[in-house]
Amino acid sequence: MYCGLLSFRTNIYQQSPMPSTFFVSDLHLFSSRSQEHRYQEAIRGVAAGADRLVLGGDIFDFRWSTMASPEEAVVRAAHWLRELAVECPACHFHFVLGNHDYHQPFLDRLDHLQERLANLTWYPFFARLGTAVFLHGDVVDRRMTARKLLNRRAAWLHKQRRGQMANRLYDLAISGNLHRPVVHWARRKKTVARRILKYLEEIGQGPASGLRNVYFGHTHLAMADYLYQGIRFHNGGAPIKGLRFRIIEAET
Ligand SMILES: [Mn+2]
Q1: Which of 5, 90, 233, 238 is buried most, with the most CB atoms less than 10 Å from its CB?
Q2: How far apart are the CA of 216 and the centre of ligand 1, in A?
């Protein structure tokens, strides 16, 4: 498709000692709220020119899927990933799961895909690349330990998707901007950073491990270079009406 056409791999990239790494999350494909189609070309263009693209979770949304059946959503998700990986063979895709794509039938597919695609690796909770950690970010929902996160995620594995009425109500909330944050954002940023860092320290990925940057999604609230305890936190937002969204170039 457009990968080859939009490729911006240049000599600068090839001579650079550091691999170019990009991060994107929270596309929420299959949900009626997703405006992923507006960024499809941009995402593929980036993948075509990058050494690595980290997909940071909630790329697919099995919980709010509008597909005819749950099976169809899983088939389409696998197709979306396979197409991207096949069309951009020079890019390695690191797929970190979010709560909305933590869905057992999809996890089974992911194993299958990873076996067949040399440039795809998936992770249930986080990916560590050099001095950067990439994680979905659902660890910020409350004070969370690794065990609590595992338990919360387990509840998502076999969740049924939401019905049409729930979907319509959610859409109404979005058109009225009710989904936008009401809390004081400066305070929220600090809480988010503190919770993520606490979790990362618990799993041995904190500052002592050489951590410098954290890339995450989930909150749908874009933030760049937010400094907390010497670590920089970045969030690309989400392609949903009324929210900011961007593909982030990551430092590893
Ligand atoms: Mn999420």
Answers
A1: 238
A2: 10
